[in-house]
Amino acid sequence: MRNSGSQRKTPQEIAASTNESEQHEWLLKASIRELQELIHSVATHPGSSLYQWAKTALAVKISEALIESIDRVEASSRRLETHTIWLKYLTAGLLALTAVLSYLTYLLLRVEHR
Question: What backbone torsions phi and psi does residue 51 show, to the nearest 5 degrees?
Fold first, then answer.
């Protein structure tokens, strides 16, 4: 079954295509899952240029996804560090308030026992 010109071709249709320009354009826009499907649909012998292009495109897409993931982890780490610093200051504030309340309780109990 062939898709109309406005619809994106499936990995199987690209594997069957003989138009290298079309294949290259498809590879540039393909998702990781589509590239995996394509790799399973094409001949895997070393002379298969589409197989090699698909493997390279998949490696690039995975690398890009890892870079994005690393960026998100770094951003989360920075937020966690900021929150930890705030938590440290809030804990110090609670310690100070606890000390003041303990001292005031002590004074109150001392006055009541007189």
Answer: -60, -45
- Encode the chain (114 residues) as per-residue pLDDT tens digits: 455 456 899 999 998 888 999 999 999 999 999 999 998 888 766 567 898 899 999 999 999 999 999 999 999 999 999 999 999 999 999 999 999 999 999 999 988 877
Q: What global pTM score does this model have?
A: 0.62
One-character DSSP codes across 54-103? HHHHHHHHHHHHHHHHHHHHHHHHHHHHHHHHHHHHHHHHHHHHHHHHHH
How many structural domains are present in the chain? 1
64 domain residue, yes or no: yes
- Degrees (nearest 5) of the Cα angle 39, 40, 41? 90
Q: CA 80 to CA 87: how far, in whole Å?
A: 10
Residue 6 resides in a domain: no
